[in-house]
From TrEMBL:
GO terms for cellular component: cytoplasm. The keyword Protein biosynthesis does not apply. Belongs to the aTrm56 family. This is tRNA (cytidine(56)-2'-O)-methyltransferase. It comes from Acidilobus saccharovorans (strain DSM 16705 / JCM 18335 / VKM B-2471 / 345-15). The lineage of its organism: Archaea, Thermoproteota, Thermoprotei, Acidilobales, Acidilobaceae. One of its GO terms (biological process) is tRNA nucleoside ribose methylation. The keyword Methyltransferase applies. CDD domains: aTrm56-like (cd18083). Specifically catalyzes the AdoMet-dependent 2'-O-ribose methylation of cytidine at position 56 in tRNAs.
Length: 177
């Protein structure tokens, strides 16, 4: 499963796009794709998170979004566009979670072109009120993976959080940076 982020504007969207990428990584995506441009700050944040907390996520940038979607579908994958104009997530999540096809999750920033609505296999809404694409992606992935992604443990992590009722507890492996 990959997440395709549309319409990133580096001077304006740096934090939000970084959060979309971090949510994609933390909630089970295998790849993050930045349409149109490359932004080193997004890449650096993903790399830093993976180095510290383990796991890996494939990163691509500067791609043509239309061509990426067409190629994904041509190779047998499904395209899921998260939009407040879509069908309720609960109506589609059963079919999506039981499908073995690779999934490309599309999230926008500015106005999304009609191409993505027309070429998505699913236009999915996490409610019909304006909200963050970060929240939409997190809720969608949580529903898709039925909460299992919250318990992912990476053996290559340099640090792991130890759940505790109060305070912070981190277990460090190797040298602490």
């Amino acid at each position: 499963m990959y997440v395709l982020r549309l319409g990133h504007r580096p001077t304006r969207d740096k934090r939000v796009t970084t959060h979309v990428a971090l949510v994609a990584r933390a909630f089970g995506a295998n790849g993050f794709v930045l349409e149109g441009v490359c932004d080193d700050s997004v890449y650096n944040s993903l790399t830093k998170a993976s180095n510290m907390w383990g796991g890996a996520i494939h990163y691509e940038c500067g791609v043509n979004g239309h061509e990426y979607v067409k190629s994904w579908k041509a190779n047998g994958g499904e395209v899921v566009h998260l939009t407040m104009y879509g069908m309720p997530v609960d109506d589609a999540i059963g079919k999506l979670s039981s499908s073995p096809k690779p999934k490309l999750i599309v999230v926008g920033s500015q106005k999304v072109e009609a191409f993505y609505y027309m070429n998505a296999d699913y236009n999915i809404a996490i409610g019909w009120q304006p909200h963050s694409e970060v929240a939409a992606l997190a809720l969608f992935l949580d529903r898709l993976f039925k909460g299992r992604e919250l318990y992912t443990y990476y053996t290559d992590a340099k640090a792991s959080i130890i759940p505790t009722r109060r305070g912070k507890r981190v277990e460090w492996r190797g040298q602490r940076k």
